[in-house]
Design brief:
The protein has 271 residues and is an alpha/beta fold. It contains nine helices and 14 strands.
């Protein structure tokens, strides 16, 4: 009989943004070298803690999801076709990510939301995570991702990686949630458009409403929302679970390793 307890070590959730592991300007183009580099930064920190990785869809699933309006559910005769194409695109990138994880030696195990999650009006209502908890205890690195899921209200919807993390964090209470993007954190204006944009190093209950006014939508094709949506999810997850959250630029080599080591970079969010 296995002695399985997923609560013996601290749990960490790490999101790898789709913009860092795919070429946003070219459909269905992954960056395997970047993916492997990120897993190599994670590898030394797998001992003594449990880590769950989730990744975005980048130039794979966001494009058909936008074309077919998949997040709106069953709205026209092409909706089911669009959901299938989008789910396949997300899964294709997921297989590339898993292949890179295997070659990096981090012992991944896939958890596709479409295989078990049930949403209600865009929010995951049910998803049994006992297999994920067991996988953690056995030494696997669970990897999940934003996916198309069955929805009791809309027929189907898209569960973003942040929505997946919201459900996971409600069951597997994390000590820390790290969101890796292609910018250095939350700014008072778009740093890609304004060289004078200032990094906001901490978000808490004292400044959350003001900062939500700063955070803009994604400048890319992104059906799951931009930085504003990410910030809302993280703040609420911190409030509900007590987790420390951090947004970092994961595209900069070494940033993820520094964050796992405990360095203060990017934007910290603590509700």
């Amino acid at each position: 009989m296995l002695n399985i307890n997923a609560d013996e070590m601290d749990n960490y959730l790490i999101k790898i943004g789709g913009s860092t592991i795919t070429n946003i300007r070219k459909a269905n183009t992954a960056k395997p070298a970047e993916i492997k580099r990120i897993f190599n930064e994670i590898k030394p920190y797998l001992h003594g803690r449990h880590i769950i990785v989730g990744h975005g869809s980048g130039s794979f699933a966001h494009i058909p999801a936008h074309k077919y309006k998949v997040n709106q559910g069953m709205i026209n005769p092409n909706s089911v076709k669009g959901a299938s194409i989008t789910q396949d695109a997300a899964a294709r990138l997921h297989r590339i990510v898993l292949d890179c994880a295997v070659s990096s030696g981090v012992n991944p195990l896939s958890f596709a939301p479409s295989s078990g999650a049930l949403s209600k009006n865009g929010k995951i209502a049910k998803w049994d995570l006992s297999p994920m908890k067991t996988a953690l205890s056995l030494g696997f690195l669970p990897i999940t991702y934003g996916d198309v899921v069955v929805d009791s209200e809309k027929g189907f919807s898209i569960a973003s990686t942040e929505e997946v993390f919201r459900h996971v964090s409600s069951i597997i209470k994390p000590k820390k949630i790290i969101i890796g993007t292609d910018v250095d954190g939350i700014f008072d204006s778009d740093p890609k458009l304004n060289n004078g944009a200032k990094l906001i190093k901490r978000v808490d209950k004292g400044n959350i409403n003001e900062i939500l006014n700063y955070a803009g939508s994604s400048t890319k094709v992104d059906v799951t929302g931009g930085m504003k949506s990410k910030l809302k999810y993280l703040y609420n997850m911190s409030r509900e679970t007590g987790a420390a959250c951090q947004i970092i630029n994961i595209a900069v080599p070494g940033n993820l390793a520094k964050t796992l080591k405990g360095n203060s970079i990017g934007t910290k969010i603590k509700a």
